Amino acid sequence: xxxxxxxxxxxxxxxxxxxxxxxxxxxxxxxxxxxxxxxxxxxxxxxxxxxxxxxxxxxxxxxxxxxxxxxxxxxxxxxxxxxxxxxxxxxxxxxxx
Length: 97
What we know:
The chain is built from 2 helices and 2 strands; from the N terminus they run ααββ. By secondary structure, the chain is mainly α. The chain has one domain (2-71). The chain has a two-stranded antiparallel ribbon with strand order 1-2. The mean pLDDT is 84.
């Protein structure tokens, strides 16, 4: 008998919770404050995404500029006497050393 009561109480509690959730969803759907808050949050997310994209683009441009300005150190360049410089390789493409 106790187990039957326990099962029944559990089922009734579940049904009550489902009814409360449905009521909250119903009220939430029609509340203008919730809609306004969701619209404000969407605007904030869009602004954050736009700022993030601009930041990433600026970082990409800065990286590209640093790469364009990069100059090999003099001690890395090896010359065999020809006009071709070889980087970190001891055998020149012209065949010289």
